[in-house]
Design brief:
The structure is a single chain. Helix 1 packs across helix 10 and helix 4 packs across helix 6. The two termini are 30 Å apart. The longest helix is centred in the first third of the chain and has 19 residues. This protein has two domains: 104 residues, NAD(P)-binding Rossmann-like Domain (Rossmann fold, 3-Layer(aba) Sandwich), CATH 3.40.50; 180 residues, NAD(P)-binding Rossmann-like Domain (Rossmann fold). The chain has a seven-stranded parallel sheet with strand order 8-7-6-9-10-11-12. A five-stranded parallel sheet has the order 2-1-3-4-5. With 308 residues, the chain is an alpha/beta fold. Helix 9 links the parallel strand 10 and strand 11.
C-alpha cells in the first residue's frame, strides 16, 4: 500500500477519485498528520517548510504545479529524493488563454471603453494595428511555446527568449544573456512565464522596462519575485509602461496595503491563470508515483542545479 501525504487534505477527495483508475493500492492521508509523517510520497503545493525533513520513509515529492521554487527555497528538503513538477497541457492551455485575454484587453483598449460605458460616453479612438505588434515571451518551454504559437496565429510578431536556443514555428527565439537586450528592443507586449531561478529573480526591473517600446504592456504569469514592484510603479508613472496584468506576487495573498490594488493601470489576478486540474493531471501524477515506488526515474524530475 502506497501512502500519499496530501497537503490541503480537506480538498483531497477529488484527487482520490481521479487517481484510482491509474494507481493501485494507495491511500491519501493528511501531510501534517502522523500518518502523513510516515508516508511514501508527498503530493503538495506550498507545503510548510521543514515538513519533508521529518518524513523518514519519503521516497518522492510531487508538486501540484509547474513551479517548484517554493519547495526549493526550503533548505531542509532532502536533495536526493526525486522532486517532480507537473507539465500538464491543460495548464498550458489555461495560461495561454489568460495571457492572450490580458494582452488583447490592453491592445484593443477595452479598459478605455469600459470606463466610457460607465459614463455613457460614445467616443471611439484609433484602433491599434491588427498585425505586426511585437510580443515578447520570456520563457518558451512547455507553457511559453504554446503562448508564443498562439500569438503568432493572431498576427503578432512574436519573439521568445530562452536559456538555450530552440526552434518554434513563426517565432524568433533569442537565447541566453547575450541576446536578451536584442530580444527586449521594441517589444510592445512583454510576457513572463519564466521559472524562478537566481538568474530570473528581479529580472523585470527598470533597465528592462526602459528597453521596451514606449507604452508597452507587461504580463507576469511567472513568479512574483521576478518583478521589482517599485520599478514597475515608477515606469507606469513615467508612461514608459502603459499597464500591467499580474497573476503572481512577492507575497500572496497580496497585502491590502500594496499599491497595485489601487493603481488604475494594473490588473490584479489572485494566482489563477493556470490552476491544476485533477482530471488532466491525475494520470501524470500516478505515473510519477508508480515510477518512484518501482525505483525508476520519473518524468519531469526537477534538476536542483538548474532550478526547475
Amino acid at each position: 500500500m502506497t501512502v500519499i501525504a496530501f497537503h490541503d487534505f480537506a480538498n483531497s477527495a477529488d484527487w482520490q477519485k481521479k487517481l484510482q483508475p491509474y494507481l493501485d493500492g494507495f491511500t491519501l492521508v493528511d501531510l501534517m498528520s502522523e500518518e502523513g509523517r510516515l508516508a511514501d510520497i508527498a503530493l503538495v503545493w506550498a507545503p510548510p517548510p521543514g515538513r519533508f525533513a521529518e518524513m523518514p520513509h519519503l521516497k518522492g515529492i510531487i508538486d501540484k504545479g509547474q513551479g517548484v521554487d517554493h519547495i526549493m527555497r526550503d533548505p531542509t528538503v532532502p536533495r536526493h529524493i526525486p522532486l517532480v513538477r507537473l507539465v500538464d497541457p491543460d495548464m498550458s492551455d489555461a495560461l495561454s488563454h489568460w495571457v492572450i485575454l490580458a494582452a488583447l484587453d490592453f491592445w484593443r483598449d477595452a479598459g478605455y471603453y469600459r470606463q466610457n460605458q460607465r459614463q455613457k460616453i460614445w467616443k471611439p479612438i484609433v484602433q491599434r494595428p491588427a498585425t505586426g505588434a511585437v510580443v515578447g515571451i520570456m520563457g518558451v518551454g512547455a507553457i511559453g511555446s504554446v503562448v508564443a504559437r498562439r500569438f503568432a496565429m493572431l498576427g503578432f510578431s512574436v519573439r521568445g527568449w530562452a536559456r538555450t536556443p530552440r526552434l518554434i514555428d513563426d517565432v524568433s527565439v533569442y537565447a541566453g544573456a547575450d541576446q536578451f537586450s536584442d530580444f527586449l528592443d521594441g517589444v510592445n507586449i512583454l510576457v513572463s512565464v519564466l521559472p524562478l531561478t537566481p538568474e530570473t529573480d528581479g529580472i523585470m526591473n527598470a533597465d528592462l522596462f526602459n528597453r521596451l517600446a514606449k507604452g508597452a504592456y507587461v504580463i507576469n504569469g511567472g513568479r512574483g519575485q521576478q518583478l521589482v514592484d517599485a520599478d514597475l510603479i515608477a515606469a507606469l508613472e513615467s508612461g514608459q509602461i502603459a499597464g500591467a496584468a499580474l497573476d503572481v506576487f512577492h507575497q500572496e495573498p497580496l497585502p491590502d496595503t500594496h499599491p497595485f490594488w489601487d493603481h488604475p493601470a494594473v490588473t490584479v489576478w489572485p494566482h489563477v491563470a493556470a490552476q491544476t486540474n485533477p482530471n488532466t493531471a491525475a494520470k501524470q501524477v500516478a505515473a510519477a508515483i508508480s515510477a518512484i515506488m518501482a525505483g525508476r526515474e520519473p518524468d519531469n524530475r526537477v534538476e536542483w542545479a538548474r532550478g526547475y
